[in-house]
Amino acid sequence: MNREEIMRIIPHRPPMLLVDEAEKKDENSCRGSYTVKGDEWFLQGHFPGKPTVPGVVLCEMMGQACAVILGDKVQGSIPYFTGIKNAKFKHPVLPGDTLEIECAMTKNRGAFYFAEGKGSVNGKVCVQAEFSFALVKPEE
Fold first, then answer.
1. Quick check: 96 and 39 in contact, CB under 8 A?
2. Is the pLDDT of residue 123 over 70?
């Protein structure tokens, strides 16, 4: 899926849409990617002279890729993070890097979903975490 197709599933929009491509592998797993261009808002000031993707943004990228797994279940809802556990940041992600994301749903309870993900650049794991989120219908 390209960005247009991803936007049909998840509610995120630029500049907060942080997945360029995604592919559902099966019912519970997905691959996604994001290429860091260098002019993103989150690189401004993080860090002067050495722009580095913040860890929280890497977690957001993995979370958005996970939301793609849910497909139609996400439509009409907002996927809110409810927890991030065991996050590990092993290598920096820099402008020009393409973060390859692999994530999988591990379980769900009602509107709550639990997943794990990892992000790699050139085969080297840069980030991994377990996270949970809830699908919440917006109040009108």
1. no
2. yes
Calpha distance 47→50 (Å, rounded): 5
Residue type at 65 in one-letter notation = A
For residue 14, the tally of other CB atoms under 10 A from its CB is 8
Tell me what pLDDT residue 140 has.
Answer: 62
Selected catalytic residue, list 31, 46, 91, 118: 46
Whether the bond into 47 is cis, omega within 30 of 0: yes
First to last CA, the chain: 30
Please state which of the ranges 28-37, 70-79, 87-96, 112-121 shows the lowest mean pLDDT.
70-79
Give the tokens for residue 75.
Answer: 């439509």
Mention every residue, 6+ apart, whose C-beta is less than 8 A from residue 6: 17, 19, 21, 22, 64, 68
Mean pLDDT of 3-27: 95
- Which helix (DSSP H) or strand (DSSP E) does residue 65 occupy? helix 55-69
- Return the structure tokens found at 19: 């997945």
Is 12 part of the annotated catalytic residue set?
A: no
pTM of the model: 0.94
